[in-house]
Amino acid sequence: MTTVAREVTEFIANDFLSYRQLGMCFKNLARHHDKGRFMNDLAVKGLRHVTDPAAKRYHQQYGSSSVPWFTVFTVDDRDEASRELLGDFLTAIETGDRWWDDKQGEPAWA
Length: 110
Prior knowledge:
This protein is mainly alpha-helical. It has five helices and no strands. The chain has helices at residues 3-14, 16-34, 40-62, 69-72, 75-95.
């Protein structure tokens, strides 16, 4: 993984808004996975809805105002960060660690 993609994934893990958005995206991907409609390429595309705003926020906080954010975080870097997050999602699904579920294991009426 490139350094830029690693920076984006670490920023997502440490930024409240990005992490919350990641949880909502993972919840949506889990729903598709459970229903048997999960596709990796569309999951990467969906995770770009998390990595793109995170890259923008990272650049606003730590980047230079003279360089646009999309030249620092190229499409390939953001795709690579999305694929890394997809790997984390698939690992969590395999191990049963669904941290994004608020009421994991509780019945719907509880």
